[in-house]
């Protein structure tokens, strides 16, 4: 069904404030879900709202803590709070540090889901910085290359590079498809994309009810990348890792923290290497070169990472409404009860 963007935003914020979430925090959280819809990311938009809100409401009121803060580095204990709120703290901190030191890294652990690291990286570019954000996708979902049992998570990666126009923005999981596609396929009563998921015996499955693990994208190359993110958002930042997802905490070492996630935010100031105007202009020139490349048969257009999502967002904002499944709207309204 068609619904005005302002209308659904107000409804979602009401869900949170009714359950005791501060208005400012509610706005930060809801804006992230709305952004998913605007970008055309259905699995990471309002479809995921009910699932995410139940956990956020349950853990409300805890304080996010900056445990380590020294020069260009910091570590944040999310204290089970919404990934959006933890990211807000981490992003502001990494931007401030990168402006001072030229490069900065801020890690976080013990937080809930962060929907799209690419959107966080894009926010960093608004300050004329390069943004890289790595996120642990939660539980053990992806099998190693050649394996069956899931060990690492979907571990989404986001990066954003400023240009003279829209930034180059990449946002992708290391699995062939996002895990959210399984829930979406069940809700829509359809099969899964082929060659993306395994059943318990290691056979390819398109049945969302039979999924045991996800395959890494690009075979062993995706597995290599996924392992890197598992380490950067797991052992490096004191967060869960591997099949047991051990959540390391001083007052409860070795406690299994299912659903608690780590992230790593990196910001780089290009002006330490080159004039920022030249940097952005040259990036735009590279984009033009890519777009001008001769197209293979059947290819209508060469796209830049994030380009399709930006187009979708601009269309939605211009018309003032988005298309959302009526069942999803009803689920959100049900959270008010």
Q: What would you say this structure looks like, in words?
A:
This protein is of the alpha+beta class and 337 residues long. The chain has two domains: 2-60 and 310-335, Orthogonal Bundle (Hypothetical Oxidoreductase Yiak, Chain: A, domain 1), CATH 1.10.1530; 65-175 and 216-272, Ribosomal Protein S8, Chain: A, domain 1, CATH 3.30.1370.60. It is built from ten helices and 14 strands. The chain has helices spanning 5-18, 23-38, 49-58, 83-101, 117-125, 180-188, 220-232, 276-292, 307-319, 326-334, and strands at residues 2-4, 65-70, 73-77, 103-111, 130-135, 157-161, 168-172, 197-198, 204-205, 213-214, 246-247, 255-256, 261-268, 321-323. The strands form four sheets. The chain has a seven-stranded mixed β-sheet, sandwiched between helices. A three-stranded antiparallel β-sheet has the order 9-8-10, with no helix packed on it. The protein has a two-stranded antiparallel ribbon with strand order 1-14. Helix 1 packs antiparallel against helix 2 and helix 2 packs across helix 4 (83-101). The longest helix has 19 residues, at 83-101. The radius of gyration is 20 Å and the shape is globular. It starts with a strand and ends with a helix. The model is unreliable at 246-258 (pLDDT under 50).
């Amino acid at each position: 069904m068609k619904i005005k963007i302002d209308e659904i935003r107000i409804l979602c914020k009401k869900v949170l404030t009714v359950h005791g979430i501060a208005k400012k925090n509610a706005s930060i959280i809801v804006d992230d879900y709305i952004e998913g819809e605007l970008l055309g990311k259905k699995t990471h938009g309002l479809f995921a709202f009910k699932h995410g809100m139940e956990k956020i409401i349950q853990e409300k009121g805890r304080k996010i803590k900056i445990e380590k803060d020294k020069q260009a580095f910091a570590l944040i204990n999310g204290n089970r709070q919404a990934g959006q709120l933890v990211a807000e703290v981490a992003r502001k901190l990494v931007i401030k540090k990168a402006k001072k030191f030229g490069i900065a890294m801020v890690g976080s652990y013990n937080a809930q889901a962060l929907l799209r690291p690419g959107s966080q990286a894009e926010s960093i570019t608004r300050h004329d910085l390069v943004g890289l954000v790595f996120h642990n996708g939660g539980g053990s979902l992806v099998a190693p290359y050649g394996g069956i049992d899931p060990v690492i998570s979907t571990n989404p990666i986001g990066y954003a590079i400023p240009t003279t126009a829209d930034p180059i923005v990449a946002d992708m999981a290391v699995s062939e498809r996002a895990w959210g596609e399984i829930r979406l396929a069940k809700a829509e009563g359809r099969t899964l994309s082929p060659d993306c998921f395994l059943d318990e015996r290691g056979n390819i499955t398109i049945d969302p009810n039979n999924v045991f693990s996800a395959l890494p994208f690009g075979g062993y190359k995706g597995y290599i990348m996924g392992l890197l993110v598992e380490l950067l958002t797991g052992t490096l930042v004191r967060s869960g890792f591997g099949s047991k997802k051990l959540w390391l905490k001083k007052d409860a070492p070795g406690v299994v923290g299912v659903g608690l996630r780590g992230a790593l935010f990196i910001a780089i100031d290009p002006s330490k290497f080159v004039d920022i105007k030249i940097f952005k202009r040259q990036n735009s020139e590279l984009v033009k070169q890519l777009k001008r490349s001769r197209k293979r048969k059947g290819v209508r257009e060469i796209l830049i990472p994030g380009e399709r999502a930006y187009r979708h967002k601009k269309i939605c904002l211009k018309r003032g409404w988005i298309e959302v499944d009526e069942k999803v709207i009803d689920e959100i309204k049900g959270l008010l009860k």
